[in-house]
Please model this.
Amino acid sequence: MKSALLIFLFAPAAAFGQVDPQDLVRQSIQNYERDWRAARTTWAYTQTDITESDGVKEVGISEVIPLAGTPYERLIRKDGHPLTPAEQRKEDHKYAKALRQREEETTSEREARIRKYDNERAFVKDIPDAYYFKLLGEETIEGRPAWVIGMKPRLDFTPSEPHSFMLGHIEGTLWIDKQDVQWAKAEARVIDTIGIGWILARIKTGTQFTVEQTRVENGLWMPRRITITGGAHVMLFYSKTINEELTYSGYRKDGSVSASTR
Model:
């Protein structure tokens, strides 16, 4: 019903070339927020993390499950092999400790933990006000029509959420699914060095991020693949190449732990 209503609202405007890209982005952010909350409280999935840095490649496969309001990541394979007995004991100990801590925490402690987790990506709420948007056209993503929207930083943008300052250093492109008004794909490019912390790191100009999402059930989308390519200066002295690919699969709505993690 909701999807049908969105089609009714947006399709006539599209036919006459009157789509407001900022309104589309704002609606997509609201839908993204809803799905993010569902992911952290309801959905479990498998995450594969492939990292190449300074000639060294590492591959980790983890199960991610909702644990008292926020996701918990548990490593199950490393560099193509099952964990060693020592590594397995370490993961079991970490999980038991996290489970015990979350069972014993007070209501205020639980709220603070969830708030801290949410603040890490709260900057997306500022996206509609942080950019000039331009409707570039339409494309098909995985067989579904999508609007293509270009994003350029606004010089007059004032951040209102944690980490939103980064948006002024990034430009990008969004592919918004027409039916569900969800991000099917997003590409971002660093156009000016981003400082993290006082002297912790500087993400270099030219670093690129790509996010691809997939429809896991009616109207609800989750990440499918994230890639990061670029570089950073760590502690202002050490130059580090960044090449990372994260893929997500096996979404399970009940949030259960798969047999491989037991």
About this structure: Helices lie at 2-15, 21-41, 85-104, 107-119, 127-130. The longest strand covers residues 220-234. Residues 2-255 form one domain.
